[in-house]
Specification:
1 helix, single chain
Length: 146
């Protein structure tokens, strides 16, 4: 393969309301975490097991940031498509820190609200380039092993 691919697709629920910040030039950025979960039955004990992963999301697309600010709330189910990025910063104690997050940039990425409870318009797609998700995403539930 001549090139490389950095694409992340997640379907999960927000752990809390999005945090909205502004850069020095006034550009709005949204950040939040979503949980993805899987469950299975332990073959030896028959016990039901669950595992939840938390994923940090950063949105640099102002239109999608506005949508996140208006409609997303703790518990909202979303489809997120972006790229994985790690950034470094120095904290107040002069210690270098790292974080890895899924980034929806200005021109690439997607955010789709999957539960219509927060969107009265009925249009749940938040990206100009994307149409509606295939119907099988609506049928996902916690009983489906991944």
């Amino acid at each position: 393969m001549a090139g490389s691919v950095n694409k992340v697709i997640l379907v999960g629920n927000l752990g809390r309301d999005p945090e909205i910040r502004s850069t020095q030039d006034g550009t709005k950025i949204a950040s939040f975490s979503i949980a993805t979960s899987e469950s299975w039955k332990d073959k030896q004990t028959g016990e039901r097991k669950d595992r939840t992963e938390w994923h940090r999301i950063a949105i640099f697309n102002e239109r999608l940031t506005d949508l996140a600010e208006k409609y997303l709330r703790k518990g909202s189910k979303v489809y997120v498509e972006g790229s994985l990025q790690t950034r470094k910063w120095t904290d107040t104690n002069n210690v270098e820190r790292y974080t890895t997050e899924v980034v929806i940039s200005r021109f690439r990425g997607e955010l789709t609200m999957l539960d219509g409870r927060n969107n009265s318009s009925g249009d749940n797609t938040a990206d100009d380039q994307a149409g509606a998700l295939p119907n099988h995403f609506d049928e996902l539930n916690d009983d489906v092993p991944f």
